[in-house]
Amino acid sequence: MGFFHPEHPVSGAGQFFGREQLLRSLSTRLLQGRSFALCGGPRTGRTSMLMQLEALIAERRHREPQAPKLIMVRVDVAKIGAGRAPQLFPAMWEHLTIAVRDPHLGGAPPPLATAKVRFDARERLTETYLEASRSLWQPLVGTPAWCRYVLMLDNIDSLLNYEHAHEVHALDALLRTRESEAPQAIVLTGGRLLREQLLDRRAPLHSARAVPLGILRQSEAVAVLRTGLSELDAEGITMMLGTTGRHPYLLQRIGAELEQQQGGFDVLEATRQASHDAMQLFEGIWAAFDFGRHVSYRGAYAAPEHALMQLLVDAPQGVTIDHAERTLGIRPMREHAEFLELVGVAEHVLHQDVPTWVAPNQLWNSWYQRRISY
């Protein structure tokens, strides 16, 4: 089995690389009972981050067996299923009961209530969930199986629509609950839709702090390449950093092609072999730009995010927010710059202590220029 795994999320020692500083910060937040939302563009590693957090918390249980026990309950919201009937809370309850019965937690749990919980009343979803949780937790008090838990909801964007508004409001109520049978913290992951939700202080879920995921830091990307491709020379590393723009998926996908070459690395050929998958990624990023609005992306009437992207592509040295606002006649522009960071096509850097945005992904920049010329 090779080092690079672009086809699926990864976690654990020897598998997950990068974002170490962010992971340490997020692990600390979870232990403190603080909720947050991981927001990123297509294939920026949101699910891998959840899985790695899960692995780190499990490692802590083994390393510090006397510490308060914390378990992670992960639900992929995108796989719950569509329909008008409430689906989220039954899925959360099912995953929670399975996690609590895990024999690897240490200390066999006493017999737990197995009565089926009905989440029929939309207006009582939160109350029903908490009542059921209370009956689940009471037999655990004073036993080695007692624990707290973190609820992790992956791909929450699929729930952020009018049809599921009642579930989102119920989840918001659960997010703000401090009762012992409620989750110690809730972690959400999503894309632009979740980010837009969190920007609105009047919207549900806004109390979860947004944590953006974009491209990897240069040191992280170099560490990935040197670990997986130890014989890749400095020129090859520089080409990979520029070609991929340090986007997590592109780094993995093109790295997997280089791995197949087994020496004599040809980054251009590896990029050509990975081009189909790269194009699919870029179409997903383009869809995040469009956001279902069918906006204009050319000329004086371009949507702000497109106007800024075109300015960054034309200015390899980068631009400041002030310069972008003066050049494009659009303000405020910072929110749109942060969106470009979110989807992994721009980066916020300091040039002589001046905040500047650059577009480092050469492969995306070339594709984008061709796309807007259609």
Describe this structure in words.
- With about 375 residues, this protein is of the alpha/beta class.
- The chain is built from 15 helices and seven strands.
- It has helices at about 20-30, 45-65, 90-100, 125-135, 165-175, 190-200, 220-230, 235-245, 250-260, 265-275, 275-290, 305-315, 320-330, 335-340, 360-370, and strands at about 35-40, 70-75, 150-155, 185-190, 210-215, 345-350, 355-360.
- The strands form two sheets. Strands 2-3-4-1-5 form a five-stranded parallel beta sheet, sandwiched between helices. A two-stranded antiparallel ribbon has the order 6-7.
- Strand 3, helix 5 (about 165-175) and strand 4 (about 185-190) form a beta-alpha-beta unit.
- Helix 9 (about 250-260) packs across helix 10 (about 265-275).
- The longest helix is centred in the first third of the chain and has 18 residues, at about 45-65.
- It starts with 19 loop residues before the first helix and ends with a helix.
Provide the fold topology:
Blueprint (H helix, E strand, L loop, with lengths): L19 H12 L4 E5 L5 H18 L6 E7 L11 H13 L24 H13 L10 E7 L10 H11 L9 E6 L1 H8 L9 E5 L4 H11 L5 H11 L3 H14 L5 H7 L1 H16 L13 H11 L6 H8 L5 H9 L4 E5 L2 E5 L3 H10 L3
Parallel strand pairs: 1-4, 1-5, 2-3, 3-4
Antiparallel strand pairs: 6-7
Helix pairs in contact: 7-9, 9-10, 12-14
